[in-house]
Every structure is written in C-alpha cells, then in structure tokens.
Amino acid sequence: MLKHTVIAAFVGLGLCASVASAQPPVTPTPTDDQHMTVNQRLENQHDRIQAGTKDDQLTKGERTHLRADDAAVRAQEKVYRQANDGKLTKGEKQQLNRELNRDSRQIYRARHNNRKPKS
C-alpha cells in the first residue's frame, strides 16, 4: 500500500511539473506610467486638471498652482533635453517621473479636498 502511495505521489509531481513547464513564463507587467513618456503624462495631468475645473472640484488658486507645477516640469525637461542633444538620461527620466508622481498626487488631493470654487 505504501508503495502505491509513493508511486502515485511521483506520478502526480511529474504531471504538475509538465503542466508548469508548458505554460509561458510569467513576467511582471509594468504599469501604464512606465510606458508613458513625460509629455504623455503631462497631457494626462492637464486633462485631469481640466476635468477638475469642469466638475467644480478645483478652486482657481489650486488650478493655477497645479498648472504652474506642470509648467515647471515641462521647463525642466526642456533644459535636460537641450543639454543632451534632445535625449533624457536615465537619471533625468527618474527625476522627471518623481516630479510627475508628486504632481499627480497633488492633483488627486486638490480634486478630493471638498473645496469649491466661488460662485
């Protein structure tokens, strides 16, 4: 009886191994932000600011501040590109993405802080 159990266990392991090897390898899928360029992210954030304005979720001051933050990122990108023949280094991309992440959080917080523009 023990012999049959051991044989069944080995057969089961063999089947599991063959099924696992037949499946394609799982690679982590990067988030959308990792595929988006700096300009695409800026455009997306611009659209989010416009939507917040349309939905009366942003005050005039919040909107002005958020637009200035995006303009600063654009200006920094321009400086980086002029210094490197139109290309961004890995470190520059990381820096711009950190700034864009911060700006994205600020947009979210401004849109969800329950402040309403003056009517």
Main beta sheet strand tally, sense and closure: none
What is the number of strand segments? Answer: 0
Coarse morphology? elongated
> Stretches where pLDDT falls below 50 for ≥5 residues?
none
Number of helices: 5
Order of helices and strands: HHHHH
Q: Structural class of the secondary structure composition?
A: mainly alpha
β-strand amount: under 5%
Structural Rg: 25 Å
Mean pLDDT: 84
Distance between the termini: 84 Å
Into which percent range does the helicity of residues fall? over 70%
In terms of topology, how is this protein built?
Elements: H1 2-22, H2 32-35, H3 38-54, H4 60-83, H5 90-111
What does this molecule look like?
It is a single chain. This protein has 119 residues and is mainly α. The chain has a domain of 79 residues. It is built from five helices and no strands. Helix 3 runs antiparallel to helix 4. The chain is elongated and about 85 Å long.
Describe this structure in a few short sentences:
The protein is mostly helical. 74% of the residues lie in helices and 0% in strands. It has a domain at 33-111.
Short key terms for the protein model shown above:
single chain; 119 residues; mainly alpha; 5 helices; elongated
